[in-house]
Fold:
Amino acid sequence: MLNVLFVCLGNICRSPLAEAVFDHIAKEEGLTNHFKSDSCGTGGYHIGADPDPRSQEIARIKGVPMDHKARKFSSEDYDNFDYIIPMDDQNYRDIVSVTGHEHPGLHLMREFDNEAGNDRDVPDPYYGGKEGFRNVYDMLERSSRQFITYLKDKHQLS
Ligand code: 4NP
Structure:
């Protein structure tokens, strides 16, 4: 069993959607038994909150089930997860500053997006409109598919 944690700032827009998309694709591929996923935020402003209504809307449109309450990242997450996947560079730096060191499974989400080019970040859609959430969804879908392919190869899953 591989434990995978998706991290953003608020844990209401990007990372709960990343978790839901990852689970949905893993289910499609019959790999559910190999993975346990979760998400959290580096900030504590929304602890206990449901995902943002705009993330809920795009998940509903795409037929992706999502059920999450926001929580904050803690250094114990380093012990409990095999993979820690921040959405952007700031999240990455905040994780390393909380824990004081890197983690062998720490990867930016868009390391797995073959359309990322020089863009390293899943951009924060919080202050924008619905278009930003559609854009985020597409990045998360591409990244999750390729991340799952990477995990299948690396851990010889089938
Ligand atoms: P997220 O988006 O990090 O993708 O969940 C945000 C949600 C809330 C805030 C910032 C980003 N906020 O500043 O409250």
Notes: The mean pLDDT is 98. Residues 8-14, 41, 45, 124, 126 surround 4-nitrophenyl phosphate (CB under 6 Å). The first helix runs from residue 14 to 28.
